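anyone seen this seq b4? input:
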Amino acid sequence: MRVCIIKGKRIPFMRSSTKYMGIPLKDLMKPAMASLVSELNLEGKEIGEVILGAVNKHAYDFALAREVVMDSKLSPHTPATDIQKACGTSLEAAVMIANKIALGQIECGIAGGIDTNSDVPVEFKKSFSDRLLRLAAARSLPDRLKALKGFTPKELMPKLPAIKEPRTGKSMGESCEDMAKTWNISRERQDELAFKSQANAEKAYKEGWYDDLVVEFKGAKKDGTIRETSLDKLAKLKPAFDRTSGKGTLTAGNSSPLTDGASCVFLCSEEYAKENNLEVMAYLTFAQSAAVNYVNDEGLLMAPAYAVPRLLKQAGITLQDFDFYEIHEAFAAQVLCTLDAWKSEEFCKSKLGLDAPLGEIDMSKLNIKGGSLALGHPFAATGSRIVASLAKLIHENGGGRGLISICTAGGMGVTAIIEK
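predicted toks r here
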């Protein structure tokens, strides 16, 4: 059974701590979900399932997906599931919806993701939170006094969320800096990729290409992360993660910014599409995930380099058999490391067990409407943003095939093929 991609919606992605400051996760998803439900005439209807997630969540967002459903005009009988797979969250959600459709469990569903760094859970030190729990459990005054014994004001120092790997203590940027050094990725190549991403995004917005995908929110109609820049301007930026060795190449210009945003996409069976007179943009046909030992063996963001060969084998095609490539740009260096790995005979033989390199891609087909370096990257929202955009590209092209490749924290990668 083929799984149809019908439509996707998102709000403009904004740099964190700007326009969306203090807005809860479910309120960020409201406009995108409302627009999707309205355009597809889903008001009051019970659909198969809504699956979405967020990386940065408050404890009270334990049922985020279900709360999004209850805030929408979907029937309250629509079930919902929360998931979290770092930057691959909403692509994984789309794959889960697609699998349920293909198995005949549901006829249709919505996948999506939300993230913000402008409304994050701020914790106290564990010693203080443990103290509060002991205080809440105390049943007498002596027990309460005992729970408070030893308290110092230092325990009230807040602990802000950190985007660091717990096993290495390194941020994603620091880890990618290591990858860039391992693969000898030059600063010039990174800046060129970033410049192209910004130029493609700006051109797409000027042409009105995003008009039916992006829903106005808080007065914004365009991603707040797009910048008019030049290679000269990018070259003047200082290293952001390795500031001391003199060899740092990752900058604010060739790294995706901390971003707030939400996106969602509707998928269904061919029968459902026909019955409801829905135009099919494309089909989600194949998907693969992979993980690497990023602690002492492989680069943190290299897992897609392993997942894509499995995907190609599953589909029976080569790396060159695509009309479009949507490779998530967490960092320009990470994209280039992956592309260089696929060209490397040594890597493909020793790491992937292949007889020959996967080869090069046509760079003119890469992220042609802009990538995460330009559009921004609200962690959990990027996957469904890409699914909807790629489906539209293929539809406007009159058919074709597109590759999605997303690296994630934790040394994982999520990949998929969309075609028509």
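The first strand starts at residue 3 and ends at 10. The two ends are 14 Å apart (CA to CA). kinda curious what u guys think
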